[in-house]
Specification:
This protein is of the alpha+beta class and about 110 residues long. It is built from 5 helices and 3 strands, in the order E-H-E-E-H-H-H-H.
């Protein structure tokens, strides 16, 4: 899971290049003022343009394993089925079990 980079307002004077680099890599960043969250920096990319801020944010946080499937669907403003459809349309996996985990899950289910 990728961690969210955190910048203070003061950091922006000396680390603005890091913030831009994060954005170019598709990473979210949190900017704080006096230790409190003030701004969530979301990369301005194709995903944001195509799907809007809520869905782009939900997709990124889900891919980084910072939200569960249900939580991501809620952030995206979609039903669980709708979010699964969105993942499918983008070719993204809804689950990523290893082969061993999948065998274990299937043995419990059957």
């Amino acid at each position: 899971m990728e961690t969210l980079d955190i910048f203070s307002v003061r950091d922006l004077r000396t680390r603005s290049g890091d913030l831009l680099r994060d954005a170019e890599l598709g990473q979210l960043a949190l900017i704080t003022k006096h230790g409190r969250p003030a701004i969530l920096a979301v990369p301005f990319d194709r995903r944001l343009l195509d799907h809007g801020v809520h869905r782009a944010l939900a997709l990124t946080l889900f891919e980084n394993r910072q939200l569960t499937l249900a939580q991501a669907a809620k952030v995206a403003g979609l039903s669980l089925d709708g979010f699964l459809d969105l993942l499918g349309s983008l070719g993204l996996a809804a689950v990523d079990y290893s082969a061993e985990e999948l065998v274990d899950e299937l043995s419990v289910a059957l």
